[in-house]
Each structure stands twice: as C-alpha cells, then as structure tokens.
Write a structure and sequence with these properties.
596 residues, alpha+beta, Jelly Rolls, 3 domains, 5-stranded antiparallel sheet, 23 helices, 14% strand, disordered N terminus
Length: 596
C-alpha cells in the first residue's frame, strides 16, 4: 500500500455522517451561487471565437483559435443541438463545471492527504475567489477544464493502489487534455506517481491500458479537430501561426514584455487586483509549506509540486494581461494551502480553522458582489454596440469594426457588410462617410456604452469596457501641422491639413477653436479651405471661435481641410514655460457630418 501522506488513502476519504451532510449542503449551496455569476452577454475575444466554433467548428478559420479546445466546444455543441444559442450553450458547460469545482477540489485535497476541515475550507475559498466565481458564468474554457482536471488528479492519486481508479483517472485526464492541453502539465505528477506504484505492483497491463486510453481520448480529440478543420495540413498550419504569435508576443521572447520578476508578482501574488486578500492567501500558503517541511507532511508539498510545471509555462510563455484567467488553474494551491495555514495558526482546532476560512469566504463574497451584479444584469458595452447596429443600421450599410472585437462582430453581424480596422482612422476615412464606426472608446457625439472601472475592471481582462457607434463622417485624420491629442483639445501651428470622409451630397463642417489673442500683437487672420477652395477668411477678434459651414463633399476621394492662421505663440520664447511649440489655434471640436 503506497504511503503518500499517511498509511491508507481510503481511510482518509471515509467521511462520517456529519461530514457527509456538511459536504452535501455546501456542494448544493455553492453550486447555486454559481448562477449568480451568469453573464448577461459575452465579453471578450475568446468567447466570440468559441461561439463561432459552436456554430461552425473550424480551427483553420479560428473557430475557435488553435488548438481548438475540441471537447469543450463539442460539449457546447451538444447543448446547442437542444436548441440553446451558441453563447448560452458555452455558458451551460461552464456553469456545470463551476458547480463541480467545490466537490472536485475537496476530493482532490482529500486524496492528497489533507484533513476534512482543510479540504472543505480550501475548496470553498477557491470557489469564491473573485476570478473563479466571475469566470464561472462566462463562455471561457478555464473553469470546466480545471474542474475536470481536479477529478482526474483525484482519481490518479487513488489509482496508486486502485487499478480501476487508475484507468478511470487516465481517461478523465485525457478528457481534461481534450478541453485544454495544458491540463497535462498539472496531471503529469499524479499520473507518474500512480504509474510508479502500478509498476511496483507489476500491473504492466494496467499501465499500458492507461496510456492507450488517455492517449486515445486526448489524441482522438485533436485528430477530430483537424478533420473538422479541413485536414491535418490546414490544422497544423493554424497551430504553427498561433504558436508563433505566442512565442513573439505573449512569451518572454517579446522584448517589450516586463521583467520576469514583475511577471511573477502579477501571476502568483496578485493576478486579481485585490492585493491585500491575495497576498494574505500567499502568506498563509507559505506558512503551510514551512510547517510541512518542518513536520515532514507530504500533502502540501505534493500539491505545490503538481503545479510547478504549469507555473513555469505561465511565467515564461503566457500573456500576463490575462493573468486573471490563467491563474484559475493554479489558485487552488493558494486556496488549499491557505486553509491549511489557517489550520496551523488555529493549532488544528477544526472550529477555529473553519471559522477563519468562513471569514475569508465572506470577505471575498462581499468584495465580489458588485462585480457580479454588473456582469449579470447588463450587456457588455461592445455587445450593446453590436446590438444597436443590428437594430438601427440598414442591412446594406457598411460598418467599420475595431479589430479588437473582430470575432464578436463576426458572430453578431454575420454576413452584414463590415470592414475591420485597428487604430488608424485613415482606414475608415478613405471610403464612405455615411458608414458606421464601432470603436472601443468613448467618442463625443456618438452613441456610447461604458462599464465603470471598478470591481469588475479589477478582475476581468482590462479591455472592452467602453464602446461607441457613430458615423464615419465623424472620423477625421489629422495630418501635417497638428500637434498630439491632449484629451479635450488639439493644437495646430501656423498651418494644418486634415482629411475628412467622403459624404453623399453636402456636409456640415463645424470648427470650435481658441485663438491665443493674449499672446499676439494683433488679432490673427484665419483662412479655412476645403479641397483647395476658400470657405471663409476672417479676423479672430475674439479668442473663442465657433463657426459652421455647409459645403459640397468630394465623391471619390477624401476631402482635404486646410486651416491657416497668421499669428502663432511660442510659450517658451515668451518665458515661464518649457513648451517650445509654435501654437496657432487650439481646436476644441472639429466635426464633419452629412447635411440633414
């Protein structure tokens, strides 16, 4: 009989009637709290890709992104077959996984050798971590993937002296790998440990069967993904492209990535921007590890060792901006070891330890509640913007969509005419000014949707909290003679050129500006030209300028606006400032819209 942390694994997993009642009640209650995290809509890039994959799985077309997460999408497809929409189908799978987190981690901790109170407390702490709770109501694969991985690890640990559990654990680990391949890095330690004991028992057939079963499930999942993606060649090419992206952008090879020490703090100390609580968990986990080393307790050390391979991958290869999601896979270490650390502090008094764990859970619940409410009760700004387009834009009207939400736009807009752009507005202005523009920022005069940068901002990936929809005519390209955007205004020198979009018929041009009369010897002469023709020439006798003109637009090329002023001010030359620019006009608003 193998000894991992004591004489008998089965003895540790036998529960009294009272313990079973506590476990059952907590399982049901925590499962119901997962419903409070159900997102009102999709939010981020990966959810759009997964939803497209449910609609039409093709990894070569990034439906979803490589390697395809085949069993996650397959499970959602089964739900979708029952008449549930694509995104809601993903949510069903994720919520079911979230409901399994608590019991799965409990039994995993018990198989490691932790006592009942530590196992319950650690599993509850993990379930109520803000990122675990919130992502448990979304369309990402992280939560169901780690739930299945917990089950696989528990079975493999039981498989040290139980051949049936060993074979079943190999199968479940294959399923976990079919959801997310990184699960193999977590399952490798219990798999090797169980295999070692099976070999010691000369159960060679069981070892061979386990390899075949796990390999067939995981390998078959990705082989099926390749077949559904047009064949192995197209599939492998998509994987190669994605791998190059991860290598060049996400990993330590990116020269602009922060130093590894800073990355380690983000990933392992405060993946959630709730530093006091997460650092407290890390300190308690350290107490557990130190105590384990001093008393030669293997359970905390084994749990820590199991997640070291994945931690190395995270540190060197993954995108630190998505730490809040990637950390879900290993924050169970923080939670269980923190519960064990509380047990050390409580001198193994179950009541005191349970009370301390409960206080931490309450703290997390209170902190997370406002974020849950926002996610559950309102559409993400980008989804509100896309739905506005579906309701208000005519079917044939062109829509320019910011590249940061390309898959979400593809999912919602389907075959509607749309063009992706990124941060270069000239990509828009060269075509029709009557088109719509969906941007990921607040745009004055446009339809805007905003989520506040509060609790949810500190847990989810920090993007897509603002969105706007406006006409392309409102997009102007500042060219020669302009200084940088200073928020509410922009300065020009003595002369500036600006490109304005093409409009059908005439357009209304408005200029609201400030002339620095207090720094000039005489009021400046200002001339405004459009496409080489002078619209107006006037003398700025007042500092505040507000003018509107109705003028014809070009039909086949961008309009060129030229503004000239006869007087400029150099603040540094006048003294009292380090600003050495020659300032002609401060433009507070410049708009170009179709004539109504």
């Amino acid at each position: 009989m193998p000894a991992i942390a004591g004489p008998n694994l089965r003895e540790w997993c036998r529960l009294s009637r009272a313990q079973k009642n506590v476990l059952l009640i907590l399982t049901v209650v925590i499962a119901l709290t997962r419903l409070l995290a159900l997102a009102h809509s999709m939010f981020d890039w990966d959810e759009g890709l997964f939803s497209l994959g449910v609609r039409d799985f093709n990894v070569a077309a990034y439906h979803p992104h490589p390697p395809g997460y085949p069993l996650f999408v397959a499970a959602a497809k089964v739900v979708h077959f029952l008449g549930v929409s694509e995104f809601r189908s993903l949510q069903v799978v994720v919520v079911l996984g979230a409901m399994c987190l608590f019991p799965a981690l409990f039994f995993f901790a018990r198989e490691l050798g932790f006592d009942f109170t530590t196992s319950v407390g650690g599993a509850a702490l993990f379930a109520f971590l803000p990122n675990v709770w919130l992502h448990g109501g979304t369309g990402y694969s992280d939560v169901p993937a780690i739930a299945v991985c917990f089950i696989a690890c528990a079975l493999l640990l039981r498989g040290c002296d139980d051949t049936r559990a060993y074979l079943l654990g190999a199968a479940v680990l294959g399923i976990a790998a079919g959801i997310r391949p990184t699960n193999l890095l977590i399952g490798v330690v219990p798999a090797l440990l169980a295999t070692y004991y099976q070999i010691r028992r000369r159960s060679f057939v069981a070892v061979l069967l386990a390899i075949l079963i796990g390999g067939a499930i995981a390998g078959g999942s990705y082989a099926g993904a390749a077949i559904e993606s047009g064949g192995m060649k197209d599939y492998l090419e998509a994987v190669r492209i994605q791998s190059k992206w991860v290598h060049d952008i996400d990993s330590y090879h990116n020269p602009y990535r922060p130093p590894l020490g800073q990355i380690a703090k983000i990933f392992f100390l405060w993946p959630i921007q709730q530093r006091q609580q997460t650092v407290a968990l890390a300190i308690l986990a350290l107490v557990s590890l130190i105590h384990a080393i001093a008393t030669r307790r293997r359970a905390p050390l084994l749990l820590f060792a199991m997640f070291v391979p994945f931690a190395i991958l995270v540190l060197f290869q993954l995108d630190f901006a998505a730490a809040t999601r990637y950390s879900i896979a290993y924050l169970c270490v923080h939670a269980v070891l923190a519960a064990d650390g509380l047990g050390v502090i409580a001198r193994r008094s179950p009541r005191v330890q349970a009370t301390l764990c409960a206080l931490f859970v309450v703290l997390f619940v209170v902190w997370t509640w406002p974020a849950l409410q926002l996610q559950r009760k309102s559409d993400a700004p980008l989804v509100s913007a896309l739905q506005w387009i579906l309701r208000n834009a005519k079917p044939g009207e062109l829509v320019f969509v910011h590249g940061g939400i390309e898959p979400q736009a593809h999912f919602f807009l389907g075959d509607r005419p749309n063009t992706v752009y990124y941060d270069e507005p000239d990509q828009i202005s060269l075509l029709s000014g009557d088109a719509w523009v969906l941007d990921l920022k607040v745009v004055p005069g446009a339809h805007n949707w905003v989520w506040p940068h509060k609790r949810l901002w500190r847990v989810m990936r920090r993007r897509n909290f603002e969105a706007s929809v406006g006409r392309a005519s409102s997009v102007v390209v500042f060219g020669h003679g302009w200084y940088g955007d200073e928020g509410a205004f922009r300065w020009m020198g003595a002369e500036s050129t600006t490109k304005l979009p093409v409009l059908r018929g005439k357009g209304k041009l408005r200029l609201r500006a400030y002339a620095p009369l207090d720094g000039l010897d005489a009021p400046p002469a200002i001339e405004v030209q459009l496409n080489g023709a002078t619209i107006e020439r006037f003398t700025a006798t007042k500092s505040d300028i507000d003018k509107t003109w109705t003028v014809p637009s070009r039909k086949d090329a961008p309009n060129e606006l030229r503004i000239l002023t006869s007087g400029t001010v150099n603040p540094k030359a006048r003294g009292g400032s380090d600003d050495a620019r020659d300032l002609g006009l401060r433009v507070d608003a410049l708009s170009w819209n179709p004539q109504q």
